[in-house]
Amino acid sequence: MSTTSPEQAAPKAGDRFPEGVEFSYVPYTPENESITSCGSPQKYLASNEFSDKKVVLFAVPVLFVTGAFTPGCSVKHLPGFIEHLSEIKAKGVDLVVVIAFNDAWVMNAWAKANGIKDEILFMTDTETKFSQSIGWTRGDRTGRYAMIIDHGKITYAENEAGGDVTVSSANAVLKAL
What we know:
The chain is an alpha/beta fold. The protein has helices spanning 46-50, 71-83, 85-90, 104-113, 129-134, 170-176; strands spanning 22-25, 42-45, 54-59, 95-100, 121-124, 137-138, 141-142, 145-150, 153-159. The protein is built from six helices and nine strands.
């Protein structure tokens, strides 16, 4: 179950996206298109990049048999965002980003296994620093949550209380857009 500790304020609509948030990812390149090619992880300065874009960010946990390549995330969570990507983008969204505790290479392979090049950015929440900073974790891993960030301002932020995919689903995000 996701938790928010008392000293950590959960994000809510109207808040600014925090400063100093960094993720790591392996950017898509034609040279690294094969699932067996690795690429090099790079820092992604989310706070800077999100400041002038409309972003959908969702997180998948990797505890209790969830995360990249697992049924909860690969069958229930991610497919909705792939299926509804054009509808999400039609609502003015510039970026769709999925984060997890998995390392950048696993996230990159998960993107490739799902036929995604750069339509959705697959990133690691390195050491779960971001998820911990907002108090949305499952143990020491990322929680399952979704946010909409519009030019640095959070307009939607919901954390799953249990194991289902409801408030963090693509359908819930679409309704909030």
